[in-house]
Amino acid sequence: MEYYFHPSPRPSSLELLSDEQLTNIYELAVEANASSDFIEIIKKVLNERNLTDRDH
Q1: Among candidate residues 40, 48, 51, 36, the one with its CA nearest the CA of residue 11
Q2: What is the distance between the alpha carbons of residues 2 and 41, in angstroms, rounded to a whole number?
Q3: Does the pLDDT at position 54 exceed 70?
Q4: How far is it, in rounded angstroms, from Cα 10 to Cα 6?
């Protein structure tokens, strides 16, 4: 049996957040010493929105 992966066309939960919400979550994640993988995912979305120059 062969299986094929079909990525979902839906946006991720992080992509649905406003810029301010995403920035707040990033700051909270850093303060809480969240996993580096999670922080990197947030950074990726911040980069895609060109928000990385904001106090980071």
Answers
A1: 48
A2: 30
A3: no
A4: 12
Q: Which two tokens stand for residue 50?
A: 């060109």
Q: What is the mean pLDDT of residues 29-48?
A: 94
C-alpha span between 11 and 36 (Å, rounded) = 22
Report how far residue 39's alpha carbon sits from residue 33's, in angstroms, rounded to the nearest whole number: 9
Q: Is the dihedral of CA 44, 50, 51, 55 positive or negative?
A: positive
Check whether 56 has a pLDDT greater than 50.
Answer: no
DSSP H helices in the chain: 19-31, 36-48
Query: What is the structure's pLDDT at 35?
Result: 94
Cα 30 to Cα 39: distance, rounded to the nearest angstrom: 7
